[in-house]
Design brief:
17% strand; alpha/beta; 2 domains; binds nicotinamide-adenine-dinucleotide; globular; 328 residues; UDP-galactose 4-epimerase, domain 1; two-stranded parallel ribbon
Length: 328
Amino acid sequence: MATILVTGGAGYVGSHCCLALKRAGHDVVVFDNLYNGHERFVKWGPFERGDIRDKGRLAEVFAKHKPQAVIHCAALIEVGESVKRPDAFYDNNVTGALVLLEVMREAGVGAFVFSSTCATYGEPQRLPMDETHPQNPVSPYGWTKLMTERASRDIAAAYGMKFAHLRYFNAAGACPDEGIGERHEPESHAIPLALFTLLGRREGFKIFGTDWDTRDGSCLRDYVHTLDLADAHVRAVERLLGGGSSLAANLGTGDGVTVLELLASIERVTGRKVPAAPAPRRDGDAPALVADTTLVKRELGWTPQRGVDAIIADAWKWHAEIEPKVFG
Ligand SMILES: NC(=O)c1ccc[n+]([C@@H]2O[C@H](COP(=O)([O-])OP(=O)(O)OC[C@H]3O[C@@H](n4cnc5c(N)ncnc54)[C@H](O)[C@@H]3O)[C@@H](O)[C@H]2O)c1
């Protein structure tokens, strides 16, 4: 059993990772500046408030808690905002990762699990996308993630560290029974936006493009439950700490869901129909993004356990029932 420092552990994916680590018997320390995180999501270990670009603060936390590994979730994540404020994204995501890696090296911490993304691939050239797919991001956000992958790979090679780059497809779902779920400001993800229309928090839901080359004309995405994502992080960290080799792995289901299928699932699960209307295609959207999951199955023995209806059921319980109680 190890002590794992989770940067961004007060955020959406990070808090689920903390829960999964604790359930697996590890000790967890959360490091987060609360720019987008929530202190009430920190429940499974001590909270250290700080910014990953603040070397002195990070070094102090490493000296105090002596973690054996880091799961690095802290980042600015909104793709559209990264186009408007690329400097802020490069500073936060790339400089922040470099400072973190420097502190890890100085503290002798050699295991780095990184929240990467399918956005590092850019326009899909083939589907499903495996880890050898060319990486050519189309947004500053995607570039910050690819640059961090590259830097951590080179730094690991030079200083005898190990990395796991986990390229998530679409994170979704929640763990309402533990009081954690998706809460981004601003929210840009399809599932919460669709559910907000049922809760009267939004007017309607737009289907961006109905003439794509997919089975029903709407965009197709690969949604993975955050509890499944979290399980993959536990496996990755245990692999590195157990002497296993570095890897880059897709985290997806290998099974895409179209926007229309998503809306049908919401209707099945909630018994209510989302008021949805077709809208023109958005610049930069790909028709379909689906993970090839062969490598992650083989290397981490990981297969997601929850399908789209389970994702919607948990997201719905979170937004409709639990989130209002947690946030008052
Ligand atoms: N949500 C998705 O669908 C998705 C998909 C692919 C990859 N990712 C990656 O997963 C990670 C977590 O995403 P999320 O959806 O949980 O986002 P989130 O915004 O909920 O969590 C990010 C956390 O990082 C913290 N943070 C940001 N900058 C920081 C800094 N400089 N110092 C300390 N803390 C800082 C925020 O306060 C927040 O708690 C991110 O790295 C994101 O790029 C997410």
